Amino acid sequence: VWWPHEGRIEVKGLVVQYAPDLENVIRGISFDVKAKERIGIVGRTGSGKSTLALSLFRFVEPTAGAIIIDGIDISSIGLEDLRSRFTIIPQDPILLSGNVRSNLDPFNEYTEDEIWESLYRVQLADAESRSGDGRATADPGAISLIATLDDPVSEGGRNFSQGQRQLLCLARALLRNSKIYLRVSLQVTISTSPHPWCRLKIIVMDEATASVDFTTDRNIQGTIRQEFEQSTLLCIAHRLRTVIDYDRVLVLDQGRVVEYDTPYNL
Ligand code: ATP
Ligand code: MG
């Protein structure tokens, strides 16, 4: 059976520190997220939002407490397996030097059209940019719209802005989402019971800080909304406005939950 098949998250008494001699960054937090709920996570800088997101993928390991997803404690799941089951758009994604194609499709799994489709959806390309010579920008190192899949990506992705790097990560997530579905539908053709729920059931978005303009923010939100309608969504936001229509908002302060309620009640 595919896990997670619903996307329920239970965080129980989670405590996280980055090193034994450092203070706890997450100080015993507990909350539940229902399947398909959209949760906004807000709080001052340094309150532990990214750390919480990273804990879901075990990029940091808790010193106490547990995260349980659809009834399974994630500490019992292998790291590689865990990280392939749901996806995070990190706050400051690092791209590999190469080109757009090698970053979106490192294992040559997708067709050219599938890759372009994902770029259209995150609005990093349009038919015009693809067919033409792209949009020249004043700064030759900067890329506005992607013109060819061979467009270069420099070390760390520094020729892209933080927001654009996030959009590329999102494009990669869209590709993966389609692939998981295909893989599962193959299984479905051999098994008898159809499982149309086997997509990425949990998506975590750690919004970029300062550099993201309003339009990019809206694009990211719009794309996530459309593409991951059936998924549980955790979105770390820097503006309450971004998550004002979410189901609930979790407010963190110094590693503790101080509010967890509908945006209306906050
Ligand atoms: P922001 O809104 O600025 O993104 P945040 O809420 O995401 O902040 P975190 O990145 O989770 O905050 O950081 C929480 C605390 O943990 C901070 O005090 C930070 O200095 C510390 N911290 C974060 N990453 C590490 C690390 N790799 N090693 C040691 N301490 C860290
Ligand atoms: Mg952060």
From TrEMBL:
It is found in: Membrane. GO terms for cellular component: fungal-type vacuole membrane. It comes from the Eukaryota. Keywords: ATP-binding, Membrane, Nucleotide-binding, Repeat, Transmembrane, Transmembrane helix, Transport. GO terms for molecular function: ABC-type transporter activity; ATP binding; ATP hydrolysis activity. Residues 9-266 form the ABC transporter domain. This is ABC transporter type 1, transmembrane domain-containing protein.
